[in-house]
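Meet the record:
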Amino acid sequence: MNGPTLTAEEQRHTLAALHFLRTRLGNWKLLAKALGFEHCTLLGVKKRRKRASVNMAYAVAKLAGVTFDDVTAGRYPVPGMCPHCGGGP
């Protein structure tokens, strides 16, 4: 039996958070290392050949210092937040 999966909407929100964090860290390899995932896994999610996992969403939340629900509900990143400095709108 498989574990819980993210809905299509949660997938979109997690991908948006991944893109934001990629900009913050500089590239996909550094983000993969920070999250504890293989670079090829993140690229698969980025290119939508793979689905982001619940574990990946938790890792994103931990790295960003927000809750899992913030990531999967689309509350992170905050609209207008600068991906370079983290400043608000």
Summary: The radius of gyration is 12 Å. The chain has a mean pLDDT of 92. The CA atoms of residues 38 and 78 lie 27 Å apart. Residues 8-25 form the longest helix (18 residues).
